[in-house]
Automatic annotation (TrEMBL):
Record-given protein name: Histone-lysine N-methyltransferase
Source organism of this protein record: Homalodisca liturata
Residue intervals of the AWS domain: 161-211
Region annotation (Disordered) ranges: 118-141, 475-585
Domain Post-SET: 337-353
Domain PWWP residues, every copy: 28-90
Compositional bias of kind Polar residues: 494-520
Cellular localization per UniProt: Chromosome; Nucleus
Major subcellular site: nucleus
Record's keyword terms, sorted: Chromatin regulator, Chromosome, Metal-binding, Methyltransferase, Nucleus, S-adenosyl-L-methionine, Transferase, Zinc, Zinc-finger
């Protein structure tokens, strides 16, 4: 898996594993995974030639093949290295939800035996290496005492007149010592005996005199070669100068490219300034064996020695004898590849060059009881009616955090439910699909700030309304006024007209006015008798809401006298405003 290799994106083209790149072949006695025929990858052990049974030796095989013994079944077979890869600690048989067969049970048994064999092999290897480690010698390199320029790089020539003498007392016990407040030492400049008042007695000539403590390269448990001190060191003590070949940028790129071609992973480059750097790989001193750590006990410092810049390593804290000396490489990674860090520090970042976790030390030194806060999930209740048509049915619900609206697929012009996270049209501009919109109160029309002008406005009564509902309001008002005028009785020379109008009750909604249904009643006289016939005319109920009509602005008195009869107009208070009003006499 790409994640198992710590690779963010798989490489293009063919892939060659690290073992093949470095020429790592399987060894006798190692535990491996073997692919044979149609069987799954099965754990096995590579047998030493002396342990191969005679009947297996007599089987036909070619040069390059080796015998393996499968765990679980304990069968043998000749195989080549193209069908195996190394078994690693933590490999498991995986999980399956299907019913286990006899082969599955045997495979689980094989993985268990392989895990035990791998642990035994690792213990034997550690014991074997521990016996041979003291006699091992560090890798060969050319020893240097001072930096050696290579190619076009030149050492800076010393100019005595440009050197600044310090003001230390030459008669003191230790002139220019760390506790003497030497001006040159404070500025990280090494004194020159020709200029310093103390001369050869000066204690600030550590680089030139190479006053190093006893140091020893040694083989570590898991990080290759390292460097340790044989004596106790105090904080601020000079440990050693980092010495190597001094190269320029062009030479550095050439050497780095050559190392990548040869799959070399050990780099010893250290930058001096923008034009020069040190390479302690082929040539240098024992400082090249110092490993990286996210919690170092040494640090690098750039000092000026005889007018030139040199790099030294100084103790960051008190270091006891036989302790490994480490410093932070501050490695600058080229490309996306990062080198894993093996320092094992509590604040280890996992990769060389990545900043360490500063809070790790505080967490280790101070035990805290942490309680996990349960995340409170606030459930929202969606509306049971479609926001477009107002009818119930199977609805597509909006996934917005606070949106409770639902829609029919047909009302949205969709044929199937969208996959994943879905926001309804109420959250997006109709024109540019941007968020942060102004929404119509009556429909899904929404417009961003850029497209709001001319498309949506703020009504003092109804709130935000789009152009569509703003036009409906105007049409309804015109229709209301026209209807009321037509219902007014025309004057007659013989009969006195009487008109009774209903009261209109305002809605308590703060944003909009409830739909109002008006009932007009005209009074006519029966020519046969003097009874009054009151005819009720119902204006149809409208779905949209509008402002007050003509009838509301001209409310009549509740009591009217018609030809000596008292007519009273009333309206049931418990009836909703959407129900048509009826005239009662």
């Amino acid at each position: 898996h790409a994640s198992c290799l710590n690779i963010s994106t798989p490489p293009d083209g063919s892939y060659i594993c690290e073992d093949c790149l470095t020429g790592r072949f399987p060894l006798y006695g190692e535990i491996v995974w073997v692919k044979l025929g149609v069987y799954r990858w099965w754990p096995a052990e590579i047998l030493y030639p002396a342990l191969i049974p005679d009947n297996i030796l007599n089987l036909p095989h070619v040069r390059g093949e080796f015998a393996v013994k499968f765990f679980g079944s304990h069968d043998h077979y000749w195989i080549n290295r193209g069908r195996v890869f190394l078994y690693q600690d933590g490999d498991t048989a995986g999980k399956s939800n299907y019913k286990k067969s006899s082969v599955d049970n045997m495979f689980e048994k094989a993985v268990k035996e392989a895990s035990e064999a791998q642990q035994k092999y690792a213990e034997e290897k550690t014991t074997r290496e521990a016996g041979t480690r003291p006699g091992m010698k560090p890798p060969n390199y050319v020893k240097l005492k001072t930096n050696k320029p290579v190619g076009n790089v030149r050492m800076l020539e010393m100019n005595i007149s440009s050197l600044t003498p310090c003001e230390c007392d030459p008669n003191s016990k230790a002139p220019c010592a760390p506790e003497s407040d030497c001006l040159n030492r404070i500025l990280m400049v090494e004194c020159n005996p020709q200029v310093c008042p103390a001369g050869e007695k000066c204690c600030n000539q550590l680089f030139e005199k190479r006053q190093y403590p006893p140091l020893q390269p040694y083989q570590t448990q898991s990080r290759g070669w390292g460097l340790r001190t044989l004596v106790d060191l105090k904080k601020g003590d000079f440990v050693i100068e980092y010495v190597g070949e001094m190269i320029d940028e062009e030479e550095y790129k050439k050497r780095l490219s050559h190392m990548h071609e040869n799959n070399e992973e050990n780099f010893y480059f250290l930058t001096i300034d923008k034009d020069r750097m040190l390479d302690a790989g082929p040539k240098g001193n024992v400082a090249r064996f110092m490993n990286h750590s996210c919690q170092p006990n040494c640090e690098t410092q750039k000092w000026t020695v005889n007018g030139d810049t040199r790099v030294g390593l100084f103790a960051l804290c008190d270091i006891p004898a036989n302790s490994e000396l480490v410093f932070n490489y501050n490695l600058e990674s080229i490309g996306s590849d990062k080198k894993p860090c093996m320092c094992g520090a509590p604040n280890c970042s996992g990769f060389i060059g990545v900043k360490a976790n500063k809070n790790a030390d505080k967490e280790d030194n101070k035990e805290k009881k942490t309680t996990k806060k349960k995340k409170v999930v606030v459930s929202k209740t969606h509306e049971e009616e479609c926001f477009v048509c107002g009818e119930e049915g199977e609805l597509l619900l909006c996934d917005g955090k606070h949106c409770t609206k639902g829609y029919h697929l047909s009302c949205l012009g969709k044929k199937q439910h969208p996959q994943g996270y879905w926001l309804c049209p109420w959250h997006q501009c109709n024109i540019c699909n941007k968020g942060r919109v102004r929404r119509c109160t009556f429909c899904v029309n929404s417009f961003c700030q850029e497209h709001s002008e001319g498309n949506i406005r703020l009504d003092p009564v109804k709130g935000l309304v789009c152009l569509k509902h703003d036009e409906e309001k105007t049409v309804e008002n015109n229709e209301s006024e026209t209807g009321v005028d037509s219902l007014k009785p025309k004057p007659d020379s013989t009969t006195e007209p009487t008109t009774v109008e209903t009261n209109i009750i305002d809605s308590s909604d703060n944003l909009t006015t409830s739909s109002q249904n008006h009932t007009e009643s005209s009074v006519k006289e029966d020519p046969t008798n003097n009874n009054i016939v009151i005819k009720s005319i119902d204006v149809p109920k409208r779905r949209s809401r509008r402002a007050r009509s003509y009838a509301e602005n001209n409310k009549p008195n509740s009591d009217k006298v018609v030809n000596g009869l008292v007519g009273k107009v009333s309206k049931r208070k418990d009836r909703p405003s959407s129900v048509d009003d009826k005239l009662i006499v």
